[in-house]
């Protein structure tokens, strides 16, 4: 799920915006961005009030974070690749397509967890 509210600290990491929270708050006031207070001191800005180019960068950033969550750790790469190859060699093409769909839907880590769990239960 994508975030709708962003702090000044998060937004200062976006290239077309000011690089300090103070500068960003000033820019936001001038641009009349929709804002809210969180925890009585943190100001957050709603994504709908941000410029289109910033929205696009935020969307790409969130997609990359989601993808990074499902990447194998470097030390697990050979084990994960070997497991995937072993499974793909042993199942028919239709089941392989369904496995790929499941991996895309739930994430690779979730599929490997299901596989490992089912293997240990037998």
From TrEMBL:
Gene3D superfamilies cross-referenced by the UniProt entry: Winged helix-like DNA-binding domain superfamily/Winged helix DNA-binding domain (1.10.10.10)
Range of residues in the leader sequence: none
GO MF term list: DNA binding
Domain HTH Mu-type: 2-66
Superkingdom per UniProt: Bacteria
Protein name: HTH Mu-type domain-containing protein
Protein species of origin: Obesumbacterium proteus ATCC 12841
């Amino acid at each position: 799920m994508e975030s709708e509210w962003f702090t000044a600290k998060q937004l200062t990491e976006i290239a077309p915006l000011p690089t300090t929270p103070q500068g960003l708050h000033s820019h936001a006031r001038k641009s009349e961005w929709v804002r809210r207070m969180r925890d009585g001191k943190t100001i957050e800005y709603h994504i709908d009030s941000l410029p289109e180019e910033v929205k696009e960068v935020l969307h790409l950033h969130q997609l990359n974070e989601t993808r990074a969550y499902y990447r194998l750790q470097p030390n697990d790469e050979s084990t994960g690749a070997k497991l995937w190859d072993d499974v793909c060699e042993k199942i028919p093409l239709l089941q392989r397509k369904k496995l790929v769909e499941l991996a895309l839907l739930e994430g690779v880590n979730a599929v490997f967890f299901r596989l490992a769990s089912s293997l240990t239960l037998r």
